[in-house]
Task: inverse folding
């Protein structure tokens, strides 16, 4: 099972990198590799604050602020005021960045659809429960919000 999960993880990462870097062109306003990874982390964290982002990846607050400001200036990240505390600012990836994910999500959805045709509904539901439990355990390990 571990080899299968690692294999799926590797495929997802490779697809993500392929579409992310395939969409990044060498021109003014494009993302560097570090910026792309920073935006990707922000996206996966689910609207963190600059402090949460800095703490999670283990960099200083000024370094995180610099990275975020570069991403904002290029249009890949938006700063959004918290609805309950207007002083708190959260980071959200923009549509410009989110476009990188559309293609790899299509590939994953296609693979799931193909797998559905090979298994009974009960087998598929069991696999889904197992994967959801693995996801729950992993989310608690990396301290990310579950989806």
Result:
């Amino acid at each position: 099972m571990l080899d299968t999960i690692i294999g799926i993880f590797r495929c997802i990462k490779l697809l993500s990198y392929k579409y992310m870097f395939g969409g990044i062109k060498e021109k003014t306003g494009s993302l560097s590799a570090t910026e792309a990874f920073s935006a990707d982390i922000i996206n996966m964290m689910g609207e963190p604050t600059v402090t949460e982002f800095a703490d999670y990846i283990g960099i200083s607050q000024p370094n995180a602020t610099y990275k975020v400001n570069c991403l904002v200036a290029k249009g890949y990240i938006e700063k959004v005021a918290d609805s309950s505390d207007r002083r708190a600012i959260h980071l959200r990836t923009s549509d410009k960045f989110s476009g990188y994910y559309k293609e790899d999500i299509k590939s994953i959805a296609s693979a799931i659809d193909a797998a559905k045709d090979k298994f009974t509904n009960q087998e598929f539901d069991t696999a889904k429960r197992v994967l959801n439990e693995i996801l729950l355990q992993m989310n608690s390990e990396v301290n990310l919000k579950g989806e």
Summary: The first helix runs from residue 2 to 23. The mean pLDDT is 84. The domain at 2-140 is CATH 1.10.10.10 (Arc Repressor Mutant, subunit A). The longest strand covers residues 77-81.
